[in-house]
Amino acid sequence: MIHYFWLIVISLLLLVFIVIPAVVIWRLSMRIPEDAGRRRFLKKAVSYPVGLAAASGYGYGYERCHTVDNRYRIPMAAGAFPEGYRLAQISDVHLGRFFSVAELRRLLERIASDGPDLLAITGDLFDDEGQNPAAAQLLDEYVDRFPDGIWYCLGNHEHFRGVTEIKRLLSATRVHALYNHAEQVPGKSFWIAGTDHPMIRETEKFRQLKAEYFAQTIEDIPEKERKSTIVLAHHPEFIDNAAAAGIPLTLTGHTHGSQFGIFGWPLFPVFKYTRGMVRLGDSYGYVHVGNGSWFPCRIGCPPEVAYFEFRG
């Protein structure tokens, strides 16, 4: 069901981008003499608004609700990770009007049924104060479905929704919540590190705080074991910090892949890294397109579950 707030928003968008332009085009067309050119003009005047309306309906009613699986094989140094190890990633669930706890359960069940060894969540899951407690309990319920558990880092929306309370909720679960901290995976020889999201806008200060967070995140990892480390970070520019430190794989989100794309490319690439795989030397980074939306429309950018399999 479309909530009244978003019904008003969508109606206003239709008015601004479809109805008003259609009226203007129609008025202009009246000035064109009756001929084949005018008929072509009128045909375009009608088809453009209709096409935009159809695309909006598709993006709202279909694509944002249909998750795809994207699978990658990542080459790693011999012995860095168990051969054939499989990790799944979700990001930017944004619990709220357009993503319920029930939908989160269906998503977790879908992933668990695929059988990955570990689930990584790269922030912006807890975005609704009313649903956050139930979501934390649900994650704890699913920990046992993944042999090496569920690992989590913060996004910016957790800070918007009361990060202290969210940390308290997670502390009562078995989820490995990493706040500028790293842990060795129990019973394994590799590490998972998780950064916080720098909550500052000014570019230079953001980069400085990002560097401080990253240094704190990996300080407990012996330098020789950094080749056996995966970094979870909400902001994709942490890919640069990790590559400089010799980390082989960094998983990020935040951008939603721009939510609009064409032929697999983001339509609005406003970030340095907006979607998909990044390679810097021998290091890989991944920018997840997200599973939810703060704006209820996706076109050419369906929500995803990303799977990574490690190969020597």
Topology:
Elements lengths: L3 H26 L6 H26 L6 E8 L10 E5 L10 H14 L3 E5 L9 H11 L7 E4 L2 H5 L2 H9 L4 E2 L3 E4 L6 E4 L8 H16 L10 E4 L5 H7 L4 E4 L8 E2 L2 E2 L9 E5 L2 E5 L16 E8 L1
Parallel strand pairs: 1-14, 2-3, 3-4, 4-5, 7-8, 8-9, 9-13
Antiparallel strand pairs: 2-14, 6-7, 10-11, 12-13
Characterise this structure:
Helix 1 packs antiparallel against helix 2 and helix 3 packs parallel to helix 4. The protein has two domains: 58 residues; 244 residues, Metallo-dependent phosphatases (Purple Acid Phosphatase, chain A, domain 2, 4-Layer Sandwich). The chain is an alpha/beta fold and 312 residues long. Strand 12 and strand 13 form a beta hairpin. It is globular and about 50 Å long. Strands 1-14-2-3-4-5 form a six-stranded mixed β-sheet, covered by helices on one side. A six-stranded mixed β-sheet has the order 6-7-8-9-13-12, with helices on one face. Strands 10-11 form a two-stranded antiparallel sheet. It is built from eight helices and 14 strands.
Brief overview:
This protein has 312 residues and is an alpha/beta fold. The protein has eight helices and 14 strands. Residues 1-20, 22-30 and 41-48 have low confidence and may be disordered.
List keywords for this structure.
312 residues, alpha/beta, Purple Acid Phosphatase, chain A, domain 2, 2 domains, six-stranded mixed sheet, 37% helix, globular
- Number of DSSP E strands: 14
Task: Supply the helix-strand structural class.
Answer: alpha/beta
Q: Uncertain regions: pLDDT < 50 for 5+ in a row?
A: 1-20, 22-30, 41-48
**Averaged pLDDT, please?**
87
What profile does the largest beta sheet have? Answer: 6 strands, mixed
* Count of individual domains: 2
The portion of residues assigned to helices is 25-40%
> Which strands sit side by side, in order, in the main sheet?
1-14-2-3-4-5
From the alpha-carbon coordinates, what is the Rg to the nearest angstrom? Answer: 22 Å
The name CATH uses for the topology of the largest domain is Purple Acid Phosphatase, chain A, domain 2
CATH architecture type of the largest domain: 4-Layer Sandwich
